[in-house]
Amino acid sequence: MALLHRADLRPTKLELLASWLPSRSWYQGDSAAELVRVAAYRFDDPAGEVGIETLLVRFGTGPVHQVPLTYRGAPLPAADAWLIGTLEHSVLGTRWVYDACADPVYAAALADAVLTGSGQAEEYFEVDGRPEVRAPSMDITSDGAGADVPAVGAVRRVVDGDRTVIVTDTVELTLARRPGLTGSQPTGPAGATLTGTWDGVSAPLAYATLR
């Protein structure tokens, strides 16, 4: 379960992304339009130290972009190139926000979701000492349910692009930056694809694959 805090964020996640996204080679759209959140899903960090959230966002009526983020209480070593920015969280203090593709905690969580079908973390707020569950904004599933998950160590290399490739010690993950658009969909062996839907999208879109 992912514990969420009712907190103020300065700047907000969308404010950080509004200035960062247009600088990416795989970005498409009108950066003068308003950036809106379409949907999101989270994974758990078993150690409970790193927040892992994937946002689906778009500028105006432009294409949806998939942006996995990790939130850390201290900088991730040797990852300055992947730092989106910092924000002040009214409960947790300063948070370093990274494009999660270079974060080994995200790579391990994504590999687990793709290979086992573990799905997304259940989100909840603590209200009067009891968990109040927040309904998910989208559904994700995998056709790799039941597979063994190798230990994912360091992220050795990231090839950023429409289909971002994350190379680790044991697995190679491919992430669709613009789910549903021709040329940006990841491809991989049968039984190793993460797909999902949200309101207004009836046919599952491929988000990530693993080999």
UniProtKB/TrEMBL annotation:
This is Maltokinase N-terminal cap domain-containing protein. It comes from Micromonospora zingiberis. Residues 20-103 form the Maltokinase N-terminal cap domain. It comes from the Bacteria. GO terms for molecular function: ATP binding; kinase activity. Keywords: ATP-binding, Kinase, Nucleotide-binding, Transferase.
